[in-house]
Amino acid sequence: MIAGSTSGSIGVILGLFIVLFSEIERFIPTHVYDDAMSWFLTQAISVLVVFALMVLIFLWVLGILGTVIKYGNFEITRYEDELYITRGLLEKKQVTIPLKRIQALGIKESMIRQPLGFATLYVEIAGGEGGQNARTFIFPLLKRNEIMPFLEKVLPEYQSLSNDFTGVPNRSAPYYMLRASFLPIIVLIVTLIFAIDFWYVPFVVILLAMSLGWLRMKTAGYYIDRDHLIFRSRDFSKDTIMMKHNRIQSIQLRQTLLHRKQHIATVQSSILNNFAGRHAGVRELDFEHAKRITDWYSLQKRVF
Length: 304
Fold this sequence. Notes:
Layout: H1 2-6, H2 9-25, H3 30-41, H4 45-71, E1 75-78, E2 82-87, E3 93-98, E4 102-109, H5 113-116, E5 118-125, E6 135-143, H6 147-154, E7 166-167, H7 173-194, H8 200-219, E8 221-224, E9 228-234, E10 238-244, E11 250-254, H9 257-262, E12 264-271, E13 278-286, H10 287-298
Antiparallel strand pairs: 1-2, 2-3, 4-5, 4-10, 5-6, 7-8, 8-9, 9-10, 11-12, 12-13
C-alpha cells in the first residue's frame, strides 16, 4: 500500500482516466450527456465532494493494484558474479544483472517518499544482450535506514554511502532559482501583455518554482572517498548516484564568465549505458571543490 500510494502512478492513472473519458464522451448521445451534466451541476457541494473523493479513492486503489501486480513476490538474489531478480504477481518476470556491467548505483527519493523515509534503489547498466534496460530497479521500496544493511548483503561494492555531503555555496542560489522559474517568468510576461487580470496565476507559479530552485540548491552536493564518487541532485525527486572510479568514463569541469567571477564551476561525470551515456553532476559548485573532484579522477592527487 505504501509503495502504490507513493509511486506517483495515481497521477498517471488520473491523466489516462481524463483522456479515456474525453474519448468515450464522443460516443455518448448529446441529450444523455447534457442531462447528466445538468443533474451533476445541480447537486449540493457535499455531493460533489463525496463524488470527487470516491473517484480519487478508486484511482488510488488502481495505483496500489498496479504496483502489487508489477512488483508482487519481488525477490533479489546475489550470486558470485550476478544479481538475479524475479517479480510479478500475474506474470513472473526475471532479470539477470551481471555485476561487471553495473556502472553506478542510484537512490531515488520522491517528494512524497522522502518525508516518509522511503527510497527506491536502482542500478545503471552498460549495454548488454537482449536489449536489457540501462536502468533497473533492484529494490522498489526500502526504508532509508535499511539501505546500508541491504547493500552490505546484496551489493557490497557500493556500500560507501555517506551523509557527509559537501553542498553548493549560497551564492549559487540565483542560478538554481532562475533555472527553475524561467518558463513561469515567460508566461508572466505574456500574461501581462494579453491577460493582465490574471497576472497572479503565473506569479504564484513563479514563487513555487523559485522555492523548488532553492530546494534543488540545498539538495545538490557531492562526496568522494578513495574509490567512489557520489553526486546528489534533485529534479522533483532527490537522486543520489554512486559511481566507482574505474567505471567513470570522463569528468568535465565547466565555467562561464560569471562563474569565474564568482569562483564557482559545474562538474559533470559520464558513465556508459545502452544509449549515449548517463551524465550526473553538480552545478555551481565552489571551484575548489570542483577542482578536488577532477584531481581525484585524474589521480594527480587525492584528498580524503
